[in-house]
Amino acid sequence: MSDAKNSRAQARSGAGIWLDQHLYSVVSSLGRAVRRPWATLLTIGVMAVAFALPLGLWLALQNVGHFAGDVQQSREIDLFLTPETPVARAQALAETLRARDDVASVELRTPDQGLAEFRQRSGLADSLDLLDGNPLPALLVVVPEGDEARLVAALEALPETDLLQHDAAWRERLTGWMGFGERLTWVLAALFGLGALLVVGNTVRLDIQSRREEIGVLQLLGASDGFIRRPFVYLGAWYGLAAGALALGLLTLAALALRDPLAALARSYGSPFALSGLDPLGAALVVLAATIVGWLGAWLVTGHFLRQTRPTAT
Fold it and tell me: Which residues are in the ABC3 transporter permease C-terminal domain (predicted)?
């Protein structure tokens, strides 16, 4: 029983020592960063800009996608029927199209509905009253499902078709540009992430050089590489954590500066668009990723230094 108690006490003692060492490294690394405010702020500022630029571009692309409209709406096919097509025939044609497997939905807008909508939006009610009749044709708004090319060909072949308006080319170009923008965002994120890695690595390297003699004494006393590396790794993590938070702050300020002009522009197009940012989970992931980048940069630099200065056996 005594041996079992001693082993459990030793295990708890070992875990306590390990935890105390980590807590001491966390606090001491934060203290070293605070004692050098200008150098710390410079490092954090450069890293924050490196994180904010690709993240801001990604957010801009997301908002552009929302502003461009719903993808389903951009797939709509406007089928204008001939003026002599009666409403009953337009209704029958709409039912026929709804039965097709490549059609998601069909909306019929009669000439009277079209004229009322035009009268409301154009502000030309007095001029429209002078017309003898309704010059507007019936309109079928068709939302395709599946192969659009086959459906477009079938609609163009209808004898009632007068004009077919399809925005597939515009949508394909927009999709292409959005895909290019997303790829550009990832490339910039990799480049700026590498830049942030180098910045934190160089800062930690300078800190290591200033404590070179202290590290040498620890190595002679038999300190492990993990014990020596630990405070520098936590220092890099602190840099990354602060840089991620500052990057979110910069993006918030940019959003505040752009929100009103973008809202006014959206209102001019009759859109309720509002600039959106990161949700809490996304913001937390950004800070976590920045912390990992700072930790990784410090770990790589410290490991390289320890491999070069490790005492050799005689």
Answer: 187-307
